[in-house]
Amino acid sequence: METRLLEYFLTVAREKNITRSAELLHITQPTLSRQLVSLEEEFGQQLIIRGKRGIQLTEAGMLFRRRAEEILDLVNKTEREMASELEQLIGQIAIGSAESSASYHFLPDIIRSFSSQYPLVTYDFYTGEANLVKEKLNQGILDVGILLEPIDIEEFDFIRLPYQDSWGLIVDQNHPLANKESLEPRDLVGVPLFFNERRTIIKNELESWAKGYYHHYRFFASYNLISNVIALLKNEMGGAIAIEGALTKRYHTDMRFIPFSPKLVSNTVLVWKKHQVLTPIMKRFLELVHHYHSQ
Known about the structure:
By secondary structure, this protein is an alpha/beta fold. The chain has helices at about 5-15, 20-25, 30-45, 60-85, 100-105, 105-115, 130-140, 200-210, 230-235, 280-295; strands spanning about 50, 55, 90-95, 120-125, 145-150, 155-170, 190-195, 220, 240-245, 255-260, 265-275. α1 packs across α2 (about 20-25) and α1 (about 5-15) packs across α4 (about 60-85). It is globular. The termini are far apart.
C-alpha cells in the first residue's frame, strides 16, 4: 500500500466530503472515489459510508484512520531522522511526559540548552498517562518519556532524574479540607475521590499508605490528566488524588494541593526503548541529559 492512499483516506475522513477532498488533493473526484473503492477492496471491508450528510466512517474505518495516522507519523519521523544524518543536525525529538515536577523544571532547562546548541531541531510534546506514554514509546511514535515511579520499565533504558513528587489531594480553595496542612488516611473517608485506578502499581502504593481506611474510600471517577477534572473540582465535587507537580499553580490559583501524611512520594525517570539504534539527535540529547544529571 502506498502512503499516498493513506493521505487520500485521511483527507476524506477529515473533510467528510469527496468533492472538497479531491480539490485539496489536486486530483479529480472520480480518481479519488476509485482509490477509496480500491482501498476497501484491498481490506475486504467497508471503510466509509456515503450519505446525505456527507462521509461517515464505519467502525473499521475509524480503526483504519487511527492506524493510518500512526503510520504517516512514523514515515514523517523517519524522514526527519534521515535528514539528521546530514552534517548539520536537523530533525525532531518526540517527548512524552506524565504530569510531574520534572515536566515543569527539568524539561524546560534541557530543551533550552539543547536548542541553543542545535537550533534547527524541533520538538513534539505529548502529555499523557504513563501507560499511554509507554505504548507510544514502543510504537516508535515517541523518542523519550518522563515517567513517575513505581512503574514497570523493564523494556526500557532509563536515567533516574533528581526529582521527587509528593502525593496528596487537589481540592478547591473553598473545600472543607482546604485549610488542612496535611491529610492523614482517615481524612479521605467520605470524600468523593478522583483517581487513576488504571495504574495498578500506584493503586497498591495508595492502599498501603491508607491501610485499613482504603476500603472505606469512595472512588467517584477516574482521570488521566488533572486538567480533565479541574472544572469539577472547582465546583467542590470532591478531591483528586495526584502529585503536587500535576497542579499548575500559575493557572489554578483557586486550587489547593494538600500533601499526605505520612508522606507518599514518587521518583522520576527518563526512559527510552531498549535495543534501538539511536539517531544522532537522540545520542546528543541523551548525552546532554547525562551531563545535566551528573552536575
